[in-house]
Amino acid sequence: FPVDRIRNFSIIAHIDHGKSTLADRLLEITGAIAKTAKNKQVLDKLQVERERGITVKAQTASLIYSHEGQQYLLNLIDTPVRDQPGHVDFSYEVSRSISACQGVLLIVDANQGIQAQTVANFYLAFEAQLAIIPVINKIDLKNADPDRVEAQIEKVFDIPREECIRISAKLGTNVEAVLQAVVNRVPRPVASIDDPFKALVFDSNFDHYRGVVANIAVLGGRVRKGDRIVSAHLGKSYEVNELGLLRPDEHPTQKLFAGQVGYMIAGMKDVKEAQIGDTLYLQDHPVEALPGFKPAKAMVFAGMYPMDQSDYAGLRSAIERLTLNDSSVTVQRDSSMALGAGWRLGFLGLLHMEVFNQRLEQEYNASVIVTAPTVPYKAVLSSAKLIKEHGREEITIVNPAQFPDRSVVSEYLEPMVLGTILAPDSYTSKIMSLCLTRRGIQKNMVYIDEQRVMMKYLFPLNEIVVDFYDLLKSLSSGYASFDYENAGYQAADLIKMNILLNGQPVEELITIVHRGRAYSAGKAMCERLKDSIPRQMFEVAVQAAIGSKVIARETIKAFRKNVLAKCYGGDITRKMKLLKKQAEGKKKMRRIGNVEVPKDAFINVLKRK
Ligand code: GTP
């Protein structure tokens, strides 16, 4: 394919607006996949993705499309998108896949209209100066109102309404017009076959048998099987073992040319060797790396420990295998008096952490204790001794247990985010009071049509990372949407809070809180802990403390009756069954002092209802 008949594009959308359905339809029309009776989504692969209805890993496909007697190669570059805020979690990956494109299809649901992630995605594409094709999907719905959505698009994005394409991805209505628009409105890639070989890595996967499979966009020249290439970031060289196109299955080829998108296998053993955003070139013809390469930045940290120290090696290998495929997770060894040896892992957001944990348990059968998630705080040290120890004045703290005391610190800093909330205006006052309780500062508020408002708030990341989205959804009956982006650090009055069970500190539940919020946060945690810990044979005191000062307390009353009492004299098998059930229950319990705590309590107690 000559470069002027190649188009590289992506589909971006708010969750559930129909990205996967449209992708499947495009694949069908161009014959890349057979028409299936069911609306099966080919581009979504992982099991947890299916379960949670989210796309975690991007998939890519090259389509061949005939238009006015010419054949075009349309490279659909899929972007990982999340169904929760912190889609920004992945925006670095998204922005890299977007930088391999010259255009995007911006899908908007004809009934729901513009949502928070529509806005976030639009700006990513807009800042990358891509052609943006607005597509209004689900026009078959009874409540579809494409006129209203077109007006929103015109108002919020300043795109003339005439440019919108109305489709039903589900029924296939007008989908052909989308392909035509890709040909006509997306510019050809700027890539010349005569330049030295240069490629952008926009996704990478680890395969047990073949090593790292990198998805690349060739920005210049050509690469052949057997060539020696170098990855600019690490400067390591590799021999190209296999190359090919993705249609969407792998089709091996001998070469890849400027303008093409495909996969490459080159003996890399770890996805960290083919990081998203990295540049590849031929060993004999070095080129300048593409600008803007930066490794993913973890924003949520948690400790992970084996339930039983004898599972340490098993958990280590499970974590190693999972991180082979996800270079955005950071792993550090960690240990604690209470939990033994484990790790401190860094994630892009809470959903990322939950998916990781779920995969550990489901795919590797690991039983893991996860500590309360924390955001990366900073402290400016005032103690000369500590500054010398750390070799610097400003340190980052990702483990609340290691939070330095006020007496050795001149200032604490916390990470901030700029949140975007879209909702029907009837919920405005409820939303505003929720934001206020989360130390939110309103930056902006506009009507995007007669009934819908868009608000911008500056929040401490810590205040919204765990349960803000759930609360926002429930107070708006599901109508509000939310997204956020990084907004740097700000000074804050922070303190460390401990939770005690019968006087014994719970390592998993050490949290950093804002001084003004300490009392209510401590009270809420004690209340929820009381609800999540089953009654024991004795009374349990649940306390929140700052230093040695107790600021909140709840009491879990002792059992009245023995569970086995009702079986006395009765059926022995029934008794055995009951004991076995209890033993099974115990496996999921963690003993703190003399108290048994269900292991899922540690994350649940952070979620406010
Ligand atoms: P993620 O993969 O999680 O990002 O979601 P998505 O944006 O890809 O949405 P998806 O394609 O999974 O569609 C979401 C839901 O909308 C599914 O139940 C689809 O069947 C439905 N849907 C998609 N397109 C249409 C349409 O044109 N009409 C109607 N009525 N439903 C549609």
Automatic annotation (TrEMBL):
Query: Is DNA repair given among the entry's keywords?
Result: no
Q: Which InterPro entries match?
A: EF-4 (IPR006297), EFG_III/V (IPR035647), EFG_V-like (IPR000640), EFTu-like_2 (IPR004161), G_TR_CS (IPR031157), LepA_C_sf (IPR038363), LepA_CTD (IPR013842), LepA_IV (IPR035654)
Question: Which residues are involved in binding GTP?
Answer: 13-20, 137-140
Q: What is its main location?
A: mitochondrion
Q: Which GO terms describe its cellular component?
A: mitochondrial inner membrane; mitochondrial matrix
Alphabetized, the UniProt keywords read: GTP-binding, Hydrolase, Membrane, Mitochondrion, Mitochondrion inner membrane, Nucleotide-binding, Protein biosynthesis
What's the protein's topology in the membrane?
Peripheral membrane protein
Q: Name one GO biological process term.
A: positive regulation of translation
User: What is the catalytic activity of this protein?
Assistant: GTP + H2O = GDP + phosphate + H(+)
Q: Which residues cross the membrane?
A: none
Superkingdom: Eukaryota
Q: Where in the cell is it found?
A: Mitochondrion inner membrane
Tr-type G domain location? 4-190
The answer to whether the entry has keyword tRNA processing is no
- Show the PANTHER family listed in the entry: TRANSLATION FACTOR GUF1, MITOCHONDRIAL, TRANSLATION FACTOR GUF1-RELATED
Record-stated family: Belongs to the TRAFAC class translation factor GTPase superfamily. Classic translation factor GTPase family. LepA subfamily.
Role summary? Promotes mitochondrial protein synthesis. May act as a fidelity factor of the translation reaction, by catalyzing a one-codon backward translocation of tRNAs on improperly translocated ribosomes. Binds to mitochondrial ribosomes in a GTP-dependent manner.
Could you identify this protein by its name? GTP binding elongation factor GUF1
Q: Which organism is it from?
A: Gasterosteus aculeatus aculeatus
